Amino acid sequence: MTLTRKIRPGRRIKSYSAVLLPFLTEDRIDWEGFRTLVNRTYNAGLTPAVNMDTGFVNLLEEHQKAEVLGCVRELSQGRPFVAGAFIEGQPGEALALYRAQIEAIQGHGGTPILFPCTQTKNMSPDQLVELHRQVGAFCPSFFAFELGEMFVPFGRIFDLETVSRLMQIPSLHGMKHSSLERELEWERLALKERERPEFMLFTGNDLAIDMVMYGSDYLLGLSAFHPEAFALRDRLWEKQDPGFYALNDLLQYLGFLAFRPKVPGYKHNAAQFLKLRGLIACPTTHPRGVVRPDSDTAILADILARLDQMVAHLSPRL
To answer: What is the model's pTM?
Structure first.
């Protein structure tokens, strides 16, 4: 199949955006800033995803994750949101641990996504599929998650046969794929088109955000920087407006900067960028997060100015 045949112009993109959990000095969460970012995501027309990698879920205490859920429940007013079910480092059997996390997420009105962990990384394909089947027996709607080791050491990318088997679980409605490799994602897109067209494949490839052109939806960390620009880009694609390409290119430039090694440092870049936008109080990151140099700020400011100018130019066309 040629690349041109894979492209799907005019498609409505399902847009999910991870939300940064901003921090103040002295290891304090910026809850006012977090509320602003969640509301901006909703107002842009994107569905927020919280307690994800962008939200430092692997570094949060349980009470902090619960506070995040409570905050989003208040802000959502019945609108959908996604939250990570994260169990890494907790003692006990994976299914029971996931169930507790899933019930907490559902109790707040969210859709759970099963964040990978050491237990799932070490499972055989049969065990992994069975875990998801058992989750599907008590959870009417959830997402799976393939995550590369460049993000977390306990990440895992599934073989294609395992992906095919997971797609057959009725209550598993989608999967986030974060290998940062186009070819693997193209394989999954072809598989879903053959076996379950309504299944949602969310690209997590912040180095190839144009995967939406080929049929992927998205759940990205990069969209946390500027959900309004991503929403505009998505609408331009649906309207088959060529402005999509210019805006996508500029957003990808931002992605190449932010998601360079060490990849987790993108969260500090997000804080720097959102501070420049006037949306959070401090351009800081979690005290155990990867720190980017202060010199990134000038580059980010230039990208922001160009983005704002482009958004202002393209918005009247819709």
So the answer is: 0.95
